[in-house]
Design goal:
71% of the residues lie in helices and 3% in strands. It is built from 16 helices and two strands. The longest helix is centred in the first third of the chain and has 31 residues.
Length: 486
């Protein structure tokens, strides 16, 4: 257990030990930046769109980020495999910050949307590069702990992000929400950059003797074009889902024609057939993330329209999931659980399915509303078990020269399933009369007082129940996460 240089228990050194401390703190700072952006910007977005007279472009502020991030994920995977993770990581952080500044200083909605698209480019580059850093710089025994640290980085933002963002928006204005996030991480990143530069480029520990480690794969231009087609197809499907008429079938058909063949080529062969090993790992990431996010997107609306909660209280009902997500990620990091990782993923998917189904019980007026908060805490625990486990298994089953491409495939599966399942849920929700806007008018003076959104409980049930069923199917598929033993 002792190292030959007399430095002590080298093999027992953790992620915050002398060797890895600066790198760990550096990459966690990056994850914190992304987490605060995700939780805070969503709160400020409606106010920003209203002040910029751009409510009609509100959806594009989200789809613009998604579309460019899909493309950037594939680019980052190839860039990492060719040049190491540091160049795309640095470019991604810069692009992410630049996008925030562009949106924060926008004078109209189109520049605001442009800023969100630039953010998407940066975010897509960063998230893949971070996974490659973990695969190259940390030994296999420490990777579960790093994934747990990533999950823990979302705890504080998920709880205080909406509250801080709301306060800043009300007191200082929405622009400061966008402009403050890059400043918050500038100093720690500057201090930790030397460790990022030194360690992120290191070869994967334990695989130094492999000749492939020094290989420099050439970029595959076809994958870039497939990524462009995938992002374009997803955007077309989102656009088609906004209008339920015959003409929307045209962009929907075009979107499918672009998306399906591109996804088949960008994801590992056999992904959609749940072939044992890496293909199932990638497929499971999409099922886990897509079902949970699709349901989570509609829970606040359900609590506001069906149970009369304020927007703030509805958002806080989901905050506990951040804590339990971190707990689940911590649990999966225990070394003694390494041999049963597929069991952890199965348990996590069962918890997620139960949480989605449990949240739908709030549609029954006699059920106490706190059931949603309890259910979502259970769902967060399940997601912590699943997402971190899948990340560890992906790195475990990837050769060093393939870590970038496989990390990109994992993230593409995540992002693609999010948009497809959320778009499908939104289409079904609208088709069942899920949301209608009505106004209350002062008859005497002819003044419109306020607008309200109403929704039929069946529309919410049509979102939650299929998502729960798909999550349960994921629990069955998770039995195929390990490659077939020879």
């Amino acid at each position: 257990m002792f190292d030959t240089d007399g430095d002590g228990f080298e093999e027992a050194e953790g992620v915050l030990g002398r060797t890895y401390r600066a790198l760990t703190l550096g990459i966690v700072s990056v994850v914190l930046m992304i987490a605060f952006e995700a939780t805070a910007v969503g709160t400020a977005m409606p106010i920003a769109a209203r002040e910029l007279d751009g409510l009609g472009l509100y959806a594009f502020a989200f789809s613009g980020y998604f579309t460019t991030s899909l493309l950037a994920m594939v680019v980052s995977g190839q860039w990492c495999d060719r040049s190491g993770p540091l160049p795309p990581l640095a470019a991604g952080i810069g692009g992410f910050a630049a996008g925030l500044v562009i949106s924060g200083t926008a004078g109209s909605m189109w520049p605001f949307v442009l800023g969100r698209a630039v953010q998407g480019l940066g975010g897509g580059l960063v998230i893949v590069a971070l996974y490659v850093v973990v695969g190259r710089a940390y030994p296999e025994r420490l990777r579960p702990s790093v994934m747990a640290a990533f999950a823990a980085s979302w705890v504080v933002p998920s709880i205080v992000g909406p509250l801080v963002s709301g306060t800043v928006t009300e007191q200082l204005g929405w622009r400061w929400v966008f402009l403050a996030i890059p400043v918050l991480v500038a100093l720690p990143l500057a201090v930790m950059l030397p460790a990022l530069r030194r360690t992120a480029q290191a070869p994967d520990p334990g695989r130094e003797d492999r000749e492939e480690e020094t290989a420099r794969p050439r970029s595959d231009g076809r994958r870039i074009w497939y990524a462009v087609a995938l992002a374009t197809g997803a955007a077309l499907l989102q656009y088609a889902g906004q209008d339920l008429d015959l003409l929307s079938a045209i962009p929907a058909a075009a979107g499918l024609a672009l998306l399906v063949p591109s996804a088949l080529r960008l994801l590992p062969p056999g992904t959609f057939r749940a072939v044992r090993g890496l293909p199932t790992v990638v497929l499971m990431r999409g099922i886990a993330a897509g079902t949970f996010i699709a349901a989570e997107s509609f829970i606040p609306l359900m609590l506001v329209t069906q149970r009369g909660l304020s927007a703030t209280m509805a958002g806080l009902s989901l905050a506990g999931a951040g804590l339990t997500w971190a707990l689940g990620s911590y649990v999966q990091a225990r070394p003694r659980l390494a041999p049963v990782r597929e069991r952890l993923a199965q348990a996590g998917m069962v918890l997620s399915a139960a949480a989605i189904g449990g949240a739908s019980l709030a549609l029954v007026q006699s059920v106490p509303v706190w059931v949603v908060a309890v259910a979502w805490c259970a769902g967060g625990l399940g997601m912590g078990l699943v997402i971190s486990t899948l990340s560890v298994l992906m790195l475990e089953q990837s050769a060093p020269e393939e870590a970038g491409a496989n990390s990109a495939a994992l993230q593409v599966s995540d992002a693609l399933s999010n948009v497809l399942l959320v778009a499908a849920a939104g289409t079904v929700f609208a088709a069942l009369g899920g949301g209608t806007v009505s106004t209350t008018t002062d008859v005497t003076h002819g003044v419109t007082d306020h607008a309200t959104t109403t929704a039929h409980p069946a529309a919410f049930a049509a979102v939650f129940l299929p998502a729960a069923a798909l999550a349960l199917a994921g629990a069955v598929i998770a039995a195929r996460l390990r490659p077939k033993r020879a």
